[in-house]
Design brief:
The structure holds two protein chains of two kinds. Chain A has ten helices and ten strands. Chain A is an alpha/beta fold. In chain A, strand 4 and strand 5 form a beta hairpin. In chain A, helix 4 packs across helix 5 and helix 4 runs parallel beside helix 6. In chain A, about 45% of the residues are buried. Chain B is an all-alpha fold. In chain B, helix 7 packs antiparallel against helix 13. Chain B starts with about 25 loop residues before the first helix and ends in a 6-residue tail after the last helix. The chains are: A alpha/beta, B mainly alpha. Chains A and B meet through helix 3, strand 6 and helix 4 of A and helix 11 and helix 12 of B.
Amino acid sequence: MGEANTATASVQSSASSDELIKIIGMHKWYGDFHVLKDINLSVTRGERIVICGPSGSGKSTMIRCINRLEEHQKGQIIVDGIELTNDLKQIDAIRREVGMVFQHFNLFPHLTVLENCTLGPIWVRQTPRAEAEETAMNYLSKVKIPEQANKYPGQLSGGQQQRVAIARSLCMNPRIMLFDEPTSALDPEMIKEVLDTMIELAETGMTMLCVTHEMGFAKTVADRVIFMDGGEIIESNDPHEFFDNPQHDRTKLFLSQILGH
Amino acid sequence: MSEVAQSYTPGTHPDMPAPVGQRGVLLWLRTNLFSSWANTLATLVAIYILYKIIPPLLDWAVFDAVLNASNRDECKSIGPGACWAFIKDRWSIMVYGFYPEALRWRVDLSFILLCMALVPVLFDKIPFRKPGLIFSCLYPFIAGWLLLGGFGLKHVGTDEFGGMMLNTVVGVTGIAFSLPLGILLALGRQSHLPIVKSISVCFIEFIRGVPLITLLFVASTMLNYFLPPGTTFDLLLRVLIMVTLFSSAYIAEVVRGGLQAIPKGQYEAADSMGLKYWQSMRLIILPQALKISIPGIVNTFIGLFKDTTLVLIIGLLDVLGISRSSLADAQWNGLSNEAYISIALFFFVCCFSMSRYSIYLEGKLDKGYKR
């Protein structure tokens, strides 16, 4: 049984090595509540996807299923050729390749910024400390806050904390970056600095899945915009088509509300 | 007095120093003690009470006290105050119990080494911390060797332990071993593995459901019924085990409270990085949970240290037990005030030190959390 699984997994990985995430017929329930209905999604390497929709539509739940922060009950999720099941080894292998940035940053408050960034490489990838610190300083410079390396997260502003969170995920050299409403907890002034960081990251060719309400970001960077409502993917299109020519009524309603004010 | 309000254009107001408050003792007295008629009355009543209590207390304890006498009647004839001569006479037995007099240097040495072993554990900015910690890990064996004997030192039975030394041995052992055990129990109770969880829950609830005295009784009397006949299990060792198990159940609940206070996002951030269970516990969750639990943990330890006097019930003579048997002695009969005040002072010094350390630790760990 195990051999057959790895055989299928490696066949899939060689056949579609460009397809980093494949979700097939995925359903999820919270108790009796059917929160995700028949999700089908395919993400190729280097693709940037923005997922939008009203609250409660299941957007965050869907991307949290990709790194097993939530469990799906039906269907398949295959990340970089590895299928997500209850097998802890596979889950850990997937989590190493998938970085996540949270709405509320989730930095570790008892560690300095530098220690936050080097923790993953040192303990998960067994990188020597000096090399991990060099990588961390490199990414902290890329997000433009190298001078904060020895401060504690509590001493930074929200925008700086989120940029540290992005740097922390990047230090693990993931293949995919998931963003769960990264700017929703920030003041308007800080939103720009975080979005700029994400745009620069997109330009390096990182595969990104981003749940956000920032439609300007979607228009600038996204290869595809997905609209979700009521646990289903309603519409999925490239930005121009999506914003100028929405197909479904629910999409039209949503766009009128979010772009109207 | 009147100031001309200087006006600034918006956006140019400079930062100015805060106004100097009116200082002075009179002002403090006025605002804190005599601010209203009710407060004034309360202050006067309080002053009167202090006047009635403190001078007689000082007279009794300090000015009229007797330090040198050989029995109670001689004490009374020298002066009307406290007979500290009693404590002076019985001091060595109150501290060392029945430990052979010639070998008491071993107890002193183990106490000094205890202080040395505690320093690297309690404080972190000290030089040579790493070798110090290794010494701290070896300390239990060194202390056991010093106190009990063997390997070149003359053997001393545990029935000769007593006094403050016994309280310290039971207290320190209980505290040191119940903390790691309590943490494991707390993690076990949170676990998703059903067997681990039920064992942890049953253990914690059983221990918390019975008084420590009953556990000590079980240790001293009933345990023999469960063990094969003829096995002797040192009484002090049984007491140490029971005290440790007792304390670990309470620590487990305190730590569990701390674990629940950690936001779910911390667990998620640790998981999404690919950290395994023990790694995320050790590096992320437990440091934060223990920091939150410090007041509860130190509280439990202070209670535990005072609970060590309960060994009196099963026949081990700690400082309280020895003082009571000294009081029964005809030579010093009836000097209970002096005895109990001394014991209270011993416990107060130990417990207050723990309390102060707790505040120091909380302050030290708070850096960086607050902006």
